[in-house]
Amino acid sequence: MQMPDMLIPQVGIITDIIQETPDVKTFRVVNLKGNKAFDHMPGQCAMLSIPGVGEAMFSISTSPTNTKYMDFSIKRVGVLTEYMHDKMREGDHITIRGPYGNAFPVDTELKGKNILFVGGGIALAPLRSVIHYVFDNRENYGYVDILYGARSVADLVYYKEIEKSWTEKRNTNVFLTIDRPDDNWDGHIGFVPDYFKKIGFSLDKVVVLCGPPIMIKFVMAVLLEMGFKKEQVYTTLELRMKCGIGKCGRCNIGDKFVCMDGPVFRTDELDHIPDEF
Fold it and tell me: Residue 33, Cβ neighbours under 10 Å: how many?
């Protein structure tokens, strides 16, 4: 597939809308020819826009090994996302452009390694692209551990997919947790950092971490306490991206622009960002 100009929007068609949680829907998008709009790598983002409503940057939650369509798992949080949740229907048009940002080093630093994915809430969306890429190229990677948590059972994004597919993959362990007791849940209860410490993962892993900033902060503290090094951990800061080309300044953190230097960072690269981040 030829790479289009990332600044020129294409018209996309929403072919499917999947209700993941009460406030998260996955929108499946193809171009007017019924194909995937452009090539990307795990961790990259796309700009979705609706003329007269707005535009925003979203992580692409499908792997590049999926050549038919792109998925965008979107939480209802503002004007554009509320419009998409309330007004958009299958068959509607939306514009799409990209890809933006860098990617997780799936073909270099992660290749041949055991991988530990740690996610919280909607932040599983950018990890899903990497997870599917690893599953689709399984011979290139070692053991896979996935630790994922959400506030409640209802807030577990991709729960059906996880239960029906991810848990059945070879050399793969999936650990799920929710923050508070639920009558419909007989699994682990507690926050992700505490569960991480309880499991006691071995140090022979590359860690791919994504979640709310407070979760990342406490998971990183547990990682360092257990003996992991920052050079072993990758994360993504795509929520700070706006224009995608380093012009608006919204994603400027210290001496870095997330859209130009990221959104994927090895955590030791973030040692010098301001404390307020």
Answer: 9
Q: How many DSSP H helices and E strands does the chain contain?
A: 6, 15
Sheet with 70-75, edge to edge strand ranges: 54-59, 45-50, 93-100, 10-21, 24-31, 70-75
| Contacts for 27 with CB less than 8 Å, ≥ 6 apart | 14, 16, 17, 71, 72, 73, 74, 84, 88, 94
Burial class (CB in 10 A: 0-12, 13-18, 19+), 150: buried
Number of neighbouring beta carbons within 10 Å of residue 95: 17
Tokens of 207: 């860690």
For domain 114-236, which CATH number applies: 3.30.70.120, 3.30.1060.10, 3.40.50.720, 3.40.50.80?
3.40.50.80
Note the residue count of the chain: 277
Tokens of 188: 């682990």
Which residues, 6 or more positions from 96, have their beta carbon under 8 angstroms from its beta carbon?
9, 10, 12, 29, 31, 37, 46, 47, 48, 49, 70
pLDDT tens track for 122-149: 999 999 999 999 999 999 999 999 999 9
- Tokens of residue 86, six digits: 């309330």
Domain limits, the chain? 10-100, 114-236
- Predicted pLDDT of residue 2: 46
Task: Name the architecture of domain 10-100.
Answer: Beta Barrel (2.40)
Interstrand relation of 24-31 and 10-21 (parallel, antiparallel or unpaired): antiparallel
Q: Is the pLDDT of residue 262 over 50?
A: yes
